[in-house]
Amino acid sequence: MTSNSFKLACIQLAVGSNKRTNLDRAKGKILEAAREGANVVVLPECFNSPYGTQYFAEYAESIPEGESVSVLSQAAKEAKVLLVPFRNETKNPANCTTHALCIILKARELIATHRKIHLFDIDIPGKIRFQESDILKPGNSLTIFDTAYGKMSIGICYDMRFPELAMIAARKACVMMIYPGAFNMITGPLHWELLQRARAVDNQLFVATCSPARDMNATYNAWGHSTVVDPSGQIIATTEHEEATVYAEIDLQQLQTVRQSIPVSMQRRFDIYVDVAANAK
Ligand SMILES: NC(=O)CCC(=O)C(=O)O
Predict the structure, then answer these.
(1) Which ligand 1 atom sits closest to the C-alpha of 161?
(2) Distances (CA, A) of 254 to 88, 139, 193
(3) Reported ipTM exceeds the 0.90 cut
(4) What is the value of pTM for the model shown?
């Protein structure tokens, strides 16, 4: 049986270069969120290392044997929360087999993994160039997992720009999309909030994002602004760029209310847009 509400915590963690310090800090914040009544806790993209292609291989671990899974599964068990952390995975960094990976932990059990499908390769001349594909390999499948609160789905950061993931999640009855992410000072103000509200309103589900806190001494300056959006596209919890935990009470009844009042999911004309992919260039 699924519960009708839960408390979500998105930990906008201050991340530094020492992995052990990051893990201890994350664990402390997870336990704090549990004391505040959180049932589901999300960590940012790269919670255990600075964000940047130069760091990925060094900080990557194999799954599930690595240090980070070990520390966090213990934290999930102690805190009795469903935990969604993001990190990098490797079997062999020398051969560039690193993936950007999100794992979902219930107590000590790994209940799902998601590998970032769309790698962050962009070039805005004079502003920002980033090539995750220099070091990462993309994942090749969608991730939907069952929770006590209904099905949820995952995208990692740049994945949020691709509306198809949230659209499929909604059609498969997910209640929430979770995007651990780390937008930056260029694309953050442009698109971070817009994308999550768009994903939410188009698909009438909850959307949660979780960024690292901003560090102006780092090589990549995260935008921050971890946020939770409801199925009508309204922001129900957010923050600025400093370290903070964003809490939101998720009332799942709202899904029904919004979906019944504006019943777009019943009104779609798949007879007209039968196969978007078939016409894609
Ligand atoms: N880590 C990422 O995928 C960053 C994505 C981003 O900043 C964007 O604008 O998209």
Answers:
(1) 10
(2) 35, 32, 21
(3) yes
(4) 0.94
